[in-house]
Amino acid sequence: MIDYTLKMMLRRIGSALLAALLAAVGAVGMALLGTLLDKQYEALDRTYRDTVIEGVITNAAGSRRTGLTINAGTYDKLTKPPLDELIRDIALERRSNVMTYTTLTYEASSEEESGEEGAAEPNTVTDRLDAALVGITFPDRASELSKFTGAAITYFDGFDETVFTGADDVCFISDDLAECMSEIKGKPHISVFYSTEVLKKDANGELNWDFVTTERIIQVAGMVSGGRSGRLYVPYRWLTTWQRTVPEKVYAESCTFIVADNYRTDEIRAALEKYFVVPDPSMSSDDRSFGYKILDEVFNASIKRINDNIRLMKALVPSLYVAASLIGFLVSFLMMRTRTREFAVMRSLGVKHACVTAAACFEQTLLTLLGGAVGAAVLTLVGMGGKLAAGCVFLACYLFGSLVSAVWITNVNVMKLLKSEE
After folding, report:
1. Distance from C-alpha of 210 to C-alpha of 198, rounded to nearest angstrom
2. Is a pLDDT exceeding 70 seen at residue 134?
3. pLDDT score for 17
4. Tell me, what's the pLDDT at 58?
5. Are 30 and 394 within 8 A, CB to CB?
6. 292: closest CA among 135, 94, 134, 68?
7. Pairing status of strand 170-174 against strand 207-225
8. β-pair type (100-111, 187-201)
9. Cβ contacts of residue 384 below 8 Å, gap of 6+?
């Protein structure tokens, strides 16, 4: 039977190779679809893992994110269970209402009335430049330093965006204050004078509020250009330290945070809604109630697009398996339909029906295996050897269709066929 099958394949070498080629192309195509589906799953996982989703505290109406009056109690709600595990990198921002200023010292010359006309003597002059303190936690998320304001930060050597998370005495200055910088051990520094109110006893022993001015020398970590003038950006924790004696109810004017686990956004919303409202423009805004927003619109759009692709590809898989069976049936039918007389003659010569059917099925099996071998070689060469299983399932469906066709065609009525020939 093997010799007969090989001879028949060689006699029809063109159609045999075409059938094998179709099987190989189908197996490679199915493996490619499996690879694309895996890549979509990888993209989905990467989007969940790498996308940074920011949340923001707003007023109840959702119309403002800055200029709020967020007190310590409100902030504490974000740092206690369960929110302490669901969010991270809480960024606070506040503009200080403590008077601050820097000093600029330079040398001028003045003419003396003595003796030599035109003689000049150096004279030290000190200017006071008012500056507003702005406490921030993460520079890239500060409202005054966002890209929408046109501000740009130039980091000096040795500093980056994590500069305010450490314990160093550092700051950013607006470019108009650059002339106030001085060098200490080769690094730019600036002297800042700030005034705070403290309770002092007077001569009569009575407590009265008095202003105390303190100087602090801070290393300059970077310069802000294109932003607001007269600004000194310092770590937020300093403002709390500097103003600890001032009876302020305001803890922060704005508050943002980062979602710690993008798979748990629904859980985060449920936890936030215990303390904050879902912003509604119809709500009245006051200092006691706050809303929240999870800025995940772009993230959700990306997830939806990837999930749509996955659903489409998964829906194609069973359709392609059915198509594989139909293709195998059609290819086998086209190859064997002209051989019905040959099968009838074999039957009339005494060859059993089972042997004729087995020979035809064996031929289709060899062609399918040949196509599978070619497909496996191609997949291995292009680095997709791990997807051979998907190609094998396609080949199994293809072979099933081919065998059904072979059984059908070899099930010929010998007497009817011979009479039609007469």
Report:
1. 5
2. yes
3. 84
4. 93
5. yes
6. 68
7. parallel
8. antiparallel
9. 31, 32, 35
Distance linking the first and last C-alpha atoms of the chain: 29
303-330 pLDDT per residue, tens: 999 999 999 999 999 999 999 999 999 9
User: What burial class does residue 170 get, using C-beta atoms within 10 Å of its C-beta: 0-12 exposed, 13-18 middle, 19+ buried?
Assistant: buried
Residue in 285, 321, 359 with CA at minimum distance from that of residue 59: 285
Please choose, from the candidates 169, 251, 259, 252, the residue with its C-alpha nearest in 3D space to the C-alpha of residue 217: 169
How many angstroms separate the CA atoms of 317 and 34, rounded?
Answer: 9
Nearest to 284 by CA among 60, 4, 18: 60
Can you spell out the DSSP letters for 216-282?
EEEEEEEEEESS-SSEEEEEHHHHHHHTTTS-----BSEEEEEES-GGGHHHHHHHHTTTSBPP-TT
Across all residues in the chain, what is the average pLDDT? 82
414 vs 194, higher pLDDT: 194
pLDDT-derived band at 202, boundaries 50, 70, 90: confident
For residue 361, the SS3 value is: helix
- What mean pLDDT is predicted for residues 412-419? 60
For residue 337 the two structure tokens come to 């339909």
Which residue in the block uniquely carries the two structure tokens 């020979």? Answer: 359
pLDDT of amino acid 223: 93
How far apart CA 363 and CA 361 sit, in angstroms, is 5
Structure tokens at 164: 């305010």
Count CB-CB contacts under 10 A for residue 58.
21
Q: Are 299 and 53 in contact (CB under 8 A)?
A: yes
CA distance 28 to 36: 12
Comparing CA positions, the residue from 30, 39, 34 lying closest to residue 306 is 39
Identity at 209, one-letter amino acid code: W
Distance CA(220)–CA(168), nearest Å, equals 11
Among 215, 226, 163, residue whose Cα is nearest residue 190:
215
Instruction: Map residue 353 onto helix, strand or coil.
Output: helix
φ and ψ at residue 93, rounded to 5 degrees: -150, 140
CA dist list (Å): 193 to 15, 102, 132, 181, 234: 92, 6, 11, 14, 13
∠ Cα 80 85 87 (to 5°) = 90
CA angle 238, 244, 247 (to 5 degrees): 135
Residue 140: DSSP 8-state: G
d(Cα 391, Cα 385) in Å, to the nearest integer?
A: 10
